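We treat protein structure as text, and this decision shapes the records that our systems exchange. The tokens are whole numbers drawn from a learned vocabulary of local backbone shapes. Below, we set out a record of this kind in full and without editing:
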Amino acid sequence: MKYFSIICITVLTIASASEAGIIKSFGVKTGIGITNLSYKTTFIGELEFDNRIGVDLGGFLVFYETPVVSSLIELRYFQKGMTYEIEGKDQYNQDTGMVKYDNRLDYLSISLFGQYTLRRSTLSPYLYFGPRIDFLIGYDSDGWDILFEEFKSPEFGADIGAGTEIKVGTLPVMLAEFRYNFYLDYAYKTDQIEMRNRSFEILVGVKLGRRDH
């Protein structure tokens, strides 16, 4: 219910901002998140997992924009998690090959960025940085339910990224970018166990609205 309220408030805010002329441009981004979980315990040390590639999808609004500096807010669905493989056994304890376990965490992510753009005619590279807040809205786990159920939500962090705008004729402005995510605290922490999210993103997108830069 609380996540539905967040979405409703966001939609109402967007509608009000559009009506008031606050929004300068807007668009969508999609791509992949390459994620993992660090896992440290006092009894067996640190475990290493394999990266998980998940869905990254959302939209953004630019509410302040000059040819060089802009500010924007993003709302995205972002999958985190990790994978690992274990040797499978049959009922006679015979090896049956490697079995892969896929553990997914579903987040609603809100980010606020300041962006610096070097304007050019076709390719306009940019850098951006800003805080993010992630709300855990679900998970799909192979045996990690007890821990995932206790994961911190909301989770606070920050993003730093780089990308470029691509302008070709009268087509909408295309975007391509890379982003690294920092998390300020552990996703799960007790006296015996510490778990922290790790992730970065590769995104493409479309920007609509102003083209007068």
Observations:
- The chain has one domain: 25-80+100-209.
- The mean pLDDT is 87.
